[in-house]
Amino acid sequence: MINSDYLTNNNWLNICVRLLFALLIGAMIGLERQLKHKPAGLRTHMLVSLGSAVFTLINIQLSGEQVNVDALSRVIQGITAGVGFLGAGEILRSSSQKSQSLEIHGLTTAAAIWVTAALGIAAGCGLWSLGLAGAGLTLIVLHFLKRLERFDD
């Protein structure tokens, strides 16, 4: 059990700010995916981040002043596994009849959904710096490192 002010500050305004922060983080990543015409775009990423924050906040709210780290850890594990299934739905395997080779599509979007859930958990816990840094690094990976992949072709 831990007692941290940033985690247990459960007033109405703080909760709303955490949820809005989760939406903002999801929107940042989702907009990048939307602009690249990926199946999971703005709304999907916003909802994944918001849902992760809500599940996290439910646990924190039910804990009261003393947050049970074991219970919070189980919530995070459940979110991670559940979002993994959502991401799996984004991965498509197709084969070309001419070459008989398999192509896999959607791995990066699935990974972005997974990261968005983690950032939603950070927002739910009130970890502002971690959320912003993670969102910024995710955008760098999704947008700027794509250019490096083009040199490989």
From TrEMBL:
<protein>
    <submittedName>
        <fullName>MgtC/SapB transporter</fullName>
    </submittedName>
</protein>
<keyword id="KW-0812">Transmembrane</keyword>
<feature type="domain" description="MgtC/SapB/SrpB/YhiD N-terminal">
    <location>
        <begin position="19"/>
        <end position="151"/>
    </location>
</feature>
<keyword id="KW-1003">Cell membrane</keyword>
<dbReference type="InterPro" id="IPR003416">
    <property type="entry name" value="MgtC/SapB/SrpB/YhiD_fam"/>
</dbReference>
<keyword id="KW-1133">Transmembrane helix</keyword>
<feature type="transmembrane region" description="Helical">
    <location>
        <begin position="12"/>
        <end position="31"/>
    </location>
</feature>
<feature type="transmembrane region" description="Helical">
    <location>
        <begin position="43"/>
        <end position="62"/>
    </location>
</feature>
<feature type="transmembrane region" description="Helical">
    <location>
        <begin position="127"/>
        <end position="145"/>
    </location>
</feature>
<dbReference type="GO" id="GO:0005886">
    <property type="term" value="C:plasma membrane"/>
</dbReference>
<dbReference type="InterPro" id="IPR049177">
    <property type="entry name" value="MgtC_SapB_SrpB_YhiD_N"/>
</dbReference>
<keyword id="KW-0472">Membrane</keyword>
<comment type="similarity">
    <text>Belongs to the MgtC/SapB family.</text>
</comment>
<feature type="transmembrane region" description="Helical">
    <location>
        <begin position="74"/>
        <end position="92"/>
    </location>
</feature>
<dbReference type="Pfam" id="PF02308">
    <property type="entry name" value="MgtC"/>
</dbReference>
